[in-house]
Amino acid sequence: MSKILIRGAKVLGGEAQDVLIDGATVAAVGTGLSDEGARVIEAQGQILLPGLVDLHTHLREPGREDSETVLTGTRAAASGGYTAVFAMANTFPVADTAGVVEQVYRLGKESGYCDVQPIGAVTVGLEGKKLAELGAMHDSAAGVTVFSDDGKCVDDAVIMRRALEYVKAFGGVVAQHAQEPRLTEGAQMNEGVVSAELGLGGWPAVAEESVIARDVLLAEHVGSRVHICHLSTAGSVEIVRWAKSRGIDVTAEVTPHHLLLTDEMVRSYNPVYKVNPPLRTERDVLALREALADGTIDIVATDHAPHPHEDKDCEWAAAAMGMVGLETALSVVQQTMVETGLLDWAQVADRMSFAPARIGRAQGHGRPVSAGEPANLTLVDPAYRGVVDPAGFASRSRNTPYEGRELPGRVTHTFLRGRATVVDGKLA
Amino acid sequence: MMRHLISAADLTRDEAVRILDTAEEMARVADRPIKKLPALRGRTVCNLFFEDSTRTRISFEAAEKRLSADVINFAAKGSSVSKGESLKDTAQTLEAMGVDAVVIRHGASGAPYRLATSGWIDAPVINAGDGTHQHPTQALLDAFTMRRRLVGRDAGIGQDLAGRRITIVGDVLHSRVARSNVDLLHTLGAEVTLVAPPTLVPVGVETWPCEVSYDLDSTLAKSDAIMMLRVQRERMNAAFFPTEREYSRRYGLDGDRMAKMPGHAIVMHPGPMVRGMEITAEVADSDRCTVIEQVANGVSIRMAVLYLLLGGNESDAPNPRTEEK
Q: If contacts are CB pairs under 8 Å, which of residues 88-147 in chain A contact chain B?
């Protein structure tokens, strides 16, 4: 049966409508659509969104298959309502050649749960010294359009300038992990009141803000577009707002955890809260929410960073940085942005699907829910309330900061080109 | 009493005074021909040192032996932070061996807290210094030294340090001693002033219960005690201050400065001292300098802490682990 009728869902949070999927395509959107020959999904009260797109995912394969693989990562993505993810380049080997990005791309195709668009490294080995073969990665089967040394900052101003200029030739974008390296030597958490008390090395906000300021000016100077990864401070928001007002072609992302959690969590010394950039203050969190609402921050990206248990079950200083996020992102956005009245569901669709697909030039994703479009769709039950239990995660790793926390909303169905990858909240 | 001693901030005023009072009793043991109490006979205490510290380890070991505990010394230098799991593994090994208390020194801030709260181990944990976070027994021995000198050995029993003015000078940023002392001295009613170049004061210090000054000279006349912190020479290469000489001129304690202190005021140092830079020999060797007393008092304080945490008084210091046995 290739026809599916989703009956009575609120499309992008609007009026309840029926959506008929035929094969890989949305065949019709309307009311009272015939269910003849179709499997029917009763979706009253649920929200139908375009399949979510994550511009910032760590799939760990190749190299750290003990943390995650393309298969387990894309299963996690489907569970979270995603139909496309951009896989960061900091694998082993680094995704800095056509060969590696094609491998990741192929593994994504084989997984079948979610489209995987590899991100290419900006510099060879993420070392910040020499440009990687950006053109070859773009020309490869993977068709790379986003380049990032994420995990490390492209801190050399000349290398950053050249990368920004170079990718213009094929419409690429450089996604910057903004972290001034000298200012963050030995950094363990946000620098401020809590770090002073805990005696943990501080990661000052200015280390992020100074790089963003430099990069938007570079982007302006050479007429390129730049994307800022995981903005985490109120000051970064101000700089991006200023840059946009000046007409600079900058886009920015925020992670779900920076919309919800603060550095107060670190008082537990539990490394599950150790992440880069670090959790900031309440004031930063509120500024990030406002900026996502008013469009200064364009998108939500998960920075899904799976780590095996042993890399977190240790003392803080020895622990790896990062949190898993694919399976909880939409719930956190619902809690922090929708239930606070800052965003409606149509705007959630923009921040989590349309805009990230546009920034990353993802083909066939982030499309309107209308006839003739690819049937990449996500159905959400916003009334659901549940306690996060990482034992049920599809991700291979369990390093979630939300364990035991109640979060709203649940992805009930995900469709990738008309094929259900999630049915009734379970992987198909 | 509390179950673990992780941070000086965890102690109430009454708990802290009780430790100081108990330490006075313990100090009397040191005056006896046979310096030993049977209090912890049959108990095993492990000194788990992931970071070198001969002075602190020996002090704990002396305290443990004077209380008749069986002592295991475990030096795991360097093996930890490179692969953090070893802390958990080590803890569980000790647990399996039936250790009754763990004294831990670790280069990573928060490691003792993790050890005490992660379910890796059931025994009481005593923090013997973690990263740049806390060193609570150092703060207690400092407070003990101040109480003896400023209030009196016998007059001090039951007393705190209300109204005493304590100045802590030097590398506050990297100092677990400074953090612990600010917390404990505030709890004990003292007024604390931190003095350091701005580069060696942590961002966020404004929430601490103390004053901050960049000028040593202006604090001398109103200090009942001046505590000098050690400045590690590698800080110079990291541009925290221009030169050793400039640091010494602005923040070093010499005879001229000591002369500006009130007559009763004491000079303290957690040791080891960098003579000539942070403190001159003239000051270090004067009878106002309490460095040697601090070392002796450290043993008494650690005896008191071990005694109280390990059920020296079973009636109000229950230790579930020992009751199970």
A: none
Residue % of chain B over a pLDDT of 70: 93
Q: Is the CB of residue B147 less than 8 Å away from at least one CB of chain A?
A: no
Please name the member of B109, B117, B118 whose beta carbon is closest to the beta carbon of A317.
Answer: B109
> What values do phi and psi take at B132, rounded to 5?
-105, 30
A42 touches chain B (CB under 8 A): no
Task: Return residues 312-341 of A near B (CB < 8 Å).
Answer: 313-319
What average pLDDT does this structure show over A346-366? 97
Q: What is the pLDDT of residues A291-344, one digit of tens each?
A: 999 999 999 999 999 999 989 998 899 999 999 999 999 999 999 999 999 999
Contacts of A198 in chain B (CB under 8 A): 109-110, 133
Please state, in angstroms and rounded to a whole number, the distance separating the CA atoms of residues B69 and B65: 5
SS (H, E, C) B180-218: HHHHHHHHCCCEEEEECCHHHCCCCHHHCCCEEECCCHH
B32 falls in which pLDDT band (50, 70, 90)? confident
DSSP state, residue A337: I
Domains annotated on chain A, with CATH: 3-47+373-427 (2.30.40.10), 52-360 (3.20.20.140)
**Is B111's Cβ below 8 Å from some Cβ in A?**
yes
Pairing of strands A52-57, A47-50: unpaired
